Amino acid sequence: MELLTTILLLLFVTALTNLVTRFIRLPLPLLQIAAGAACDMVGVHLSIDPALFLLLFIPPLLFADAYRIPKRELSEVGVPVVVLAVGLVLFTTIGVGYFVHWLLPFLPLAAAFALAAVLSPTDAVALGGIMNGQRLPRRFMHVLQGEALLNDASGLVSFNVAVAVVLTGSFSFTEAALSFVCVSLGGLLIGALFGWAFVHLDRRLLSRQMEETSIYIVLTLLLPFAAYLAAEEIRSSGILAAVAAGITINVMDPFGGGAGVVRRRTYAIWGVMEFAFNGLIFLLLGLQLPAIVKDGLSITETAHRSGWKLLSLIVLVTLSLVVLRFLWVMLTVFVRYWMARLRRQSLQQPGLIVAAVASVAGVRGAVTLAGILSLPLVLNDGSRFKGRDLLICIAAGVIMSSLLLAVVALPPLIRRLPVPEVDPVEAEVEAARNAMAQGVIRELEGRLAKGIAKREGVAREVYEAAVERVISDYRLKLQGRDGDDENQMRALEDQRVELAIRLRGVRVERAEMRALRANHTINDEAVRVLMEEIDLEEEALMRLADILPPRERM
Fold first, then answer.
1. I want to staple 526 with a disulfide (CB 3.0 to 4.6 A). Which of 39, 41, 55, 522 is the partner?
2. For residue 378, what is the DSSP state?
3. What is the pLDDT of residues 443-498, one digit of tens each?
4. Chain segment 69-91, per-residue pLDDT in tens
5. Spans of all domains in the chain
6. What is the CATH number of domain 48-278+308-421?
7. pTM of this prediction?
8. Residue 267: alpha-carbon gap to chain centroid
């Protein structure tokens, strides 16, 4: 009962912190971490097993990100993503590992590598929370999102290899490399298999049972967990399995579900779950923070060192991560630029500002916390894991300092980024709307008109009138998007007036329905049916209103 009460309280705090950020311009992750620490200080305690933490939160969030990431853009930035997600992880593990061992020579080198490996994954969720409405260039954001999807797995695999070396005291580069490849490929294959099976199940069975949308939603929610557990069962990467499942469905069935009602309800459920899980991750970090700080202070007292030395150690490790990331980005950009020149291809060379943004944007988050907390207490020979509490304290400090650094440094850096004059997505959307409208007009004036011609009498008159009204609507949409200013203004004004009248009618419908219910003319079952119809119509009208230019909006 106490556990349930604590979870409900944390969910309430999640909603409350999201509401507070609407009035106080404070990065949401930092606010939620502070709220979690405050909850711990007033007596709210929740200890969670790191393995359970990984299973509960990471697979669904990564699955959702993998499903939403644009397929075309992901393929376009595939090389930079792989270079960052794999190459940078190994570069960071080696570089920061040796640096930490130099700072703390009493730590085993493998333990220093374990810390560096668990610090290498970046967190796109945390990055999105600290942007405060600021937007990065689309291609840039796609690279960071793709990197965050894949480097969780490569970082944790490297971490597990380093921990195994600490436990056993032996290391083989060949075995480590083979283990890395097998674990990664196994996770990708398992995830792709689960995604493929789900898509075929949907096409052959679920799409024929549209009235049972709950079945589709439940299976979708279970899919990332199933892929994760199956991969972990054969000692592969469960995280990569969840990512591969999401990407596979994105490629094979990008729209999801066989009907609009299925998609709408599925997106709504996933939206609520992501909202809750993202908040709980940072609240749990805040709940752990006081104990971690206390352990860190006790470590410094035992070692006869001041807390400032621990703080300086955290700052140095954070800066080393940023510097190595900056060097790696510049190195890869330089190599790609000269390879393109050798092939006589044109490739724009990003400047120092782009590399600086990429370096600062590599914030650490949930995967780093879950990984470092999973460090074993004792080694295989029964001795205590030397420096475990110190490693946990450093990792938590790096998470906080990377968030703070991004909060301070990102806004001025983003303002100096070159902004494209035309948003390619908006241009593509506008072109697609014109093409779709023209396609409808061709269909109505062509093949459908031939079918109407076969009708006679009243039936033919009714169909002709209906077709003419629909064609007029689509021609009005096209006029509102052509280059003629007079036609454009007239069409926009017509749309504005029509939308205002239709919205007024919908709201009158809702008021009448409520009056009928209050008079007991209709029951609650009828109310639910009517309310869904009215809500859908109002939502569609509001979306149309949002398309209008700001000065024309209602």
1. 522
2. B
3. 777 766 666 666 667 766 777 777 777 777 777 667 666 555 666 676 667 667 77
4. 777 777 777 778 888 888 899 89
5. 48-278+308-421
6. 1.20.1530.20
7. 0.79
8. 14
